[in-house]
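Hi R.,

As promised on Friday, here is the backbone we talked about, encoded as structure tokens. Could you run it through your design pipeline when you get a chance and send me back a sequence?
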């Protein structure tokens, strides 16, 4: 790293602008996981699995609340329970997708041979 690149890096890290850098880092984080090409260690895989299980538990609690509201007799039904259930189910589906892409690595694609093969005999 040259002196000029190092100085530019130091200046960029010392900027007093938080939001754009945070948004860029978060976007890079999700993009890297969802690409399927990221390589995770055992601890990172366990953490990602725990995150998916956490959102699964929340989605299941929202489902239980929604079913309870459907089965409840009387006029005390909560109309927002369907909205909560849909939102939390969508969040779970997002984390399930990200978790599966992160936990199950993408298989390398086989290179297709193009053109004619040459024989070794002349």
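Update: got your reply. Pasting your designed sequence below so it's all in one thread:
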């Amino acid at each position: 790293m040259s002196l000029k690149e190092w100085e530019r890096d130091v200046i960029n890290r010392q900027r007093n602008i938080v939001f754009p850098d945070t948004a860029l880092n978060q976007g890079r984080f999700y993009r890297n996981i969802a690409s399927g090409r990221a390589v995770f260690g055992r601890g990172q895989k366990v953490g990602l699995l725990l995150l998916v299980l956490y959102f699964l538990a929340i989605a299941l609690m929202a489902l239980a609340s929604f079913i309870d509201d459907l089965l409840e007799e009387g006029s005390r039904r909560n109309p927002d329970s369907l909205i909560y259930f849909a939102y939390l189910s969508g969040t779970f589906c997002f984390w399930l997708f990200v978790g599966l892409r992160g936990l199950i690595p993408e298989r390398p694609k086989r290179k297709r041979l193009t053109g004619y093969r040459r024989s070794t005999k002349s």
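One thing I noticed while checking it: The mean pLDDT is 82.

Thanks again,
M.
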